[in-house]
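Database export, one record per block. Field names are fixed; values are copied verbatim from the stored entry.
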Amino acid sequence: MLLTTPNNRTWRRIGLILAIPLLLSYYWYSRQTTPQGGTTFGLIYGALGLLLIVFLLFHAVRKRWHRCTYGKTEIWLNAHIYFGLLAMLLIYMHAGFRFYDLSATVATGLLSIVTISGIVGAIFYTLIPRRLSEAKSNLAPQEISDQMNQFAEKLQKLSQGKSEAFQSACQLFLKENTPAGRMGWRLAFGRSGGKRNVLADRRLAEKIQAIPPNEQEELKQMIFLAKQWRDLNAQFRTQMRLKNLLESWLYLHVPLSVAMVVAIIIHLFVVTYY
């Protein structure tokens, strides 16, 4: 797990080494005067926090800048996590852990939410790739989808020229098990729908019982294809659910980060001109 790797432990130590003198300096500073953003120490904490935030924003550039050779992605991610916590600490120290100004309160609140969501994202990006590798499939979702389409074509060809009950059973199976249209947010956070599957299996069993005896050999082929289809479907749903979870986290973290930057700019403007 990323949060317990040697590289992560190194950055955790770096974070502690930097945090301890900062906290000691704040303790001394708070004994000398009432901490607030306008004091010398308050401005120093604020400037350091702002520099760290600018550095943290570069992580998004580094992830998409494939030609960049400044450090591995894992190093940048660990630095992003612990420098994010340090930035939040510095901003709270800058404000003296008290917030009277609306712009400062909003900016700090967004910074706190972005930091927490970043930690959640780091856990997601650690656990989900491992879960994907445990999905017992070396195929990408598109490859699985292509194979499912091939099995669907085989089932449809198998049902051609057969009895109405046979064709009805094949169509019911395909209708109840096709994942199209259910790969979005509902799949990311929903369950597999056990009760719905049980009812579908009961209806399918009723259809199968109506298949005439002279089509029993083809029925065995249909059941074999249906089992392979369901195995692929389970792999497909697992992979898409995990990938959608990652995407849903980005839909939260990125807009919050943008809102935080806007709030910081507004706060700097307010304290500079008013």
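Remark 1: Confidence is low (pLDDT under 50) at residues 181-190.
Remark 2: The chain has nine helices and no strands.
End of record.
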